[in-house]
Design brief:
Oligomer: homodimer
Strand content of chain A: 25-35%
Number of domains of chain A: 3
Shape of chain A: elongated
Helix content of chain A: 25-40%
Largest interface: A-B, 62 and 61 residues
Structural class of chain A: alpha/beta
CATH class of the largest domain in chain A: Alpha Beta
CATH superfamily of the largest domain in chain A: Dihydrodipicolinate Reductase, domain 2
Chain lengths: 432, 432
């Protein structure tokens, strides 16, 4: 019988916002955590390439390192926190740490979305463990809930606001009536958006996260390339106004649904009913909605931030320590035992809000409506504002449920009409 | 080295709504749960006094029993689900099961609130385990979150809508403008309220639940008798209207806060800002808000219901099975290592909405305002509706922050005024 652990050593690789947030939370809560777990918890090494830039926390020189090998080669280190981000060198470092039997905690969504299955396999073979609570929803404990309390649930849908940058931009557009460009600039000014915001505004970040959530919810290893992805750059303030008139807000949702034995996987803006628990989640907050056969659950919390994500990492460290102490690593393993194929996007059925830029001329509405009808798309609402004859104006349509293929065909035909300059569709999420 | 479990036997004691909901979820998810855990999971005995009444699920006669001893004395049964409710015989049964080394899962809030500490001690001594996710928030996995992912958080506040009956009544009053009595009758008609609704409408049920949440959040064994408790029976539709005008909704909240080294523990109606994530939680839904030093989290979900609570119980069963399989029972034990005293209610500081029933006579407002001022209560808003001279009318006041003792003294003086018939206060929860 192995003797129970009385001390656990932690190494941190990458000391930016998240790495320093983690150390800060660990140190501030050290007494409480140690008392609760009955184990001494020490950060023994922190590795970063750059010790010049200033941080919110001061690290004694004896703990500082510059080479990940200082942690990987140190057999006294039980738990490695990977807080570098991106695919490499994070992947090689995490893989080696797991091979050496170390428990790894990482909030790296790209790493988990692309290499999660492989890394979990490595962990299984070496008897180590991999935790990644912080990879989705920052400080929201959704991964843990899916692994533990919701494991027995028959989950039908999981969708969420998982990107704070785009939610901030959409909230600004909605609350202040500003354009996408103005809202983006404000987000950049506040540090919520990168100078090159593509990863966020085009939905790549959200696609990583829904791939992770879907894999856990449906026990199927989802390939992130199978996630349909559409960003928020084409949205207009008028879209938000039209949505509001009909009782909706516009949100960028990451969506995974099981329909019979196929998965829908998609990231795109939606009209969400304003009564939905996710509709009032504004700013950089994140939220995740889970619908199972027996319950609808909503989790709301911070999507990013060093200490919020640090708290998620510390939550994982606590779980890791308990498993080390009780020699039960692997007790809450992942089981990707199902293998649901992904439904082709053209077969996905939605309601749509369609915005058409057309000339205000006699018969225009009839021509557009005829094209919808010819493609089998029936309409539930239309709004043509008072406009200037012969000038371009936005006309809005709300369709009934229709397969994506039919809607896209209708848009194609409508765009070819001489009186039409553009046609753009936003999907409607009925919200359960 | 003990051989790893390949089979776990479960006994269910009490086969009402929750017991049958649990068995239904277990059976419907049996294949998935077994595949995920690698263990055969069998319900081998279900005990109830009454096998005549109809249920949503049919149980083969071979599984039926009438005496809890059939489960307690059966050494092949690893996990006991207590779904009787109330203090006795539940307490004696759970205690004996734990003493015999069985893992117990129970959603019994009264049992846990009153006897949780004692039962956890029994479990610790016998090496068994006690789980009670379903005891608070029905299907919301808040207990598990507090035990695991949030264990390292420095929690400052936890409050929630933890009683579906009262939330339904308040939602009806708010959405339909009906009186408390009318809303109660509707709740009773729909089966949401008992014929004698005292446990719900006077806040006893919510007090049990906040005692449990506070104990876990602050690592202090809270005595349920220390929870200040006030129900919803005195609320008027006009209160809701006044609140709405100021941007608030009225909710019955169960509140626990740490202020320096004292705990505030209270259940009472509050004015909650309409922007708060709990403000739009309507009907029988429950929701819990946690504010820690690093993150604000909201959990929303079903507060009751056989299958929703059954799913919470199944979540506990899964955790129990993992701990049996990996021989790590006790890994996520509870640590009531802190001992914060409860702050006397008179020292609690709040804003208040005060409703005064007074005669519309010259100088009334001045007299009332003078009494507030004399007790050091300053006012932030007043509303006196157009009324009939010399008739009774409701005047509303919103105070600034003031200790409970001063407010109560002011009310006492105001009630003594000859022009005043009644004075009633509702606390304001700023929502962090």
């Amino acid at each position: 019988m192995e003797e129970k652990r009385t001390r656990v050593n932690i190494g941190i690789i990458g000391f930016g916002t998240v790495g320093s947030g983690t150390v800060k939370v660990l140190w501030e809560q050290k007494f409480e955590i140690e008392r609760a777990l009955g184990v001494t918890v020490e950060v023994v090494k922190i590795v970063d390439k750059d010790w010049i830039r200033s941080r919110s926390i001061v690290i004694p020189p004896s703990l500082r390192g510059e080479d990940p090998a200082e942690i990987l080669n140190d057999d006294s280190i039980d738990i490695v926190v990977e807080a570098i981000g991106g695919l490499e060198p994070a992947f090689s470092i995490v893989k080696e740490a797991l091979e050496r039997g170390k428990t790894v905690v990482t909030p790296n969504k790209e790493l988990i979305a692309k290499k999660g299955k492989e890394l979990l396999q490595v962990a299984l073979q070496s008897g180590s463990e991999l935790f990644f609570e912080g990879s989705v929803g920052g400080g929201i404990p959704i991964i843990h809930a899916l692994k533990e309390q919701l494991l027995g649930d028959d989950i039908e849908e999981i969708f969420g606001i998982v990107n704070g940058t785009t939610n901030f931009i959409l909230s600004e557009m909605s609350l202040k009536g500003v354009s996408y460009q103005e809202a983006l600039r404000e987000a950049q000014r506040l540090g919520y958006a990168e100078p090159v915001p593509t990863m966020d505004v085009e939905g790549f970040d959200a696609a990583y996260k829904i791939a992770i959530l879907a894999s856990l919810s449906f026990r199927t290893q989802v390939d992130v390339d199978q996630v349909y992805r559409e960003g928020i750059t084409a949205l207009l303030p008028q879209d938000i106004d039209f949505a509001r008139e009909l009782g909706y807000v516009i949100k960028l949702l990451a969506i995974a649904k099981k329909d019979k034995n196929q998965l829908e996987l998609r990231v795109h803006p939606v009209l969400l009913p304003s009564w939905h628990s996710l509709a009032s989640v504004n700013g950089v907050e994140n939220a995740i909605f889970v619908k199972s056969r027996t319950r609808n659950l909503t989790f709301i919390g911070p999507g990013a931030g060093g200490e919020a994500t640090g708290s998620a990492i510390v939550g994982d460290i606590i779980e890791a320590i308990r498993n080390l102490k009780y020699s039960c690593r692997g007790r809450a393993g992942y089981n990707f035992t199902a293998n649901f194929p992904v439904k082709p996007m053209k077969e996905v059925v939605n309601q749509y809000c369609v915005r058409i830029l057309a000339y205000d001329r006699p018969g225009v509405l009839g021509k557009i409506a005829a094209e919808f009808g010819a493609c089998g798309v029936s309409l539930s609402a239309v709004k043509q504002p008072v406009s200037v004859p012969d000038q371009l104006t936005h006309i809005y349509f709300l369709t009934h449920h229709t397969p994506e293929s039919q809607l896209q065909l209708a848009l194609e035909h409508i765009r070819k009409l001489s009186v039409v300059s553009d046609a753009f569709a936003i999907r409607v999420e009925s919200g359960s």
